[in-house]
């Protein structure tokens, strides 16, 4: 990729932006926080190459991650198709955000 360029897309979590919000998922938030630092290091390492590195920070999504223990607010979580549409829209834009935060739509 350093020679020919390319795109790396990382799906993290909004927990990577503020680990203090995750009362019941401290290890999850810490791992996402660590990935964020790693991605920043990769970006720095590739700043002179044609490698684009994007990070996506979605809020709660309706996935099987929650099958064993459903959060109380699960019904307000985003459908994965909504998140995919937002990611594609960002990437197709003239100036895509490299750190793209996707929040739940307000009702």
Biggest sheet statistics? 3 strands, parallel
- In spatial order, strands of the major sheet run 1-2-3
Mean of pLDDT: 89
The name CATH uses for the topology is Rossmann fold
Name the CATH homologous superfamily.
NAD(P)-binding Rossmann-like Domain
Total count of helical runs of at least 4 residues: 2
> CA-to-CA gap between the ends?
42 Å
Strand content: 15-25%
Shape by Cα distribution: globular
Short description:
With 107 residues, the chain is an alpha/beta fold.
Characteristics:
about 110 residues, alpha/beta, Rossmann fold, three-stranded parallel sheet, 2 helices
Report what the structure shows.
The chain is of the alpha/beta class and 107 residues long. The protein has a single domain, classed as 3-Layer(aba) Sandwich (Rossmann fold). Helix content is 31%, strand content 17%. Strands 1-2-3 form a three-stranded parallel β-sheet, sandwiched between helices. α2 links the parallel β2 and β3. The longest helix is centred in the N-terminal third of the chain and has 20 residues. It starts with 5 loop residues before the first strand and ends in a 5-residue tail after the last strand.
């Amino acid at each position: 990729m350093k020679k020919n360029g390319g795109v790396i897309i990382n799906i993290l979590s909004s927990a990577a932006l503020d680990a203090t919000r995750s009362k019941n998922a401290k290890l999850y938030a810490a791992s996402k926080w660590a990935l964020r630092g790693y991605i920043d290091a990769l970006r720095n390492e590739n700043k002179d190459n044609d490698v684009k590195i994007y990070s996506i920070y979605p809020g709660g999504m309706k996935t099987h991650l929650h099958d064993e223990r459903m959060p109380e607010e699960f019904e307000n979580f985003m459908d994965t198709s909504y998140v995919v549409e937002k990611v594609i829209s960002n990437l197709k834009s003239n100036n895509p955000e490299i750190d793209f935060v996707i929040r739940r739509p307000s009702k």
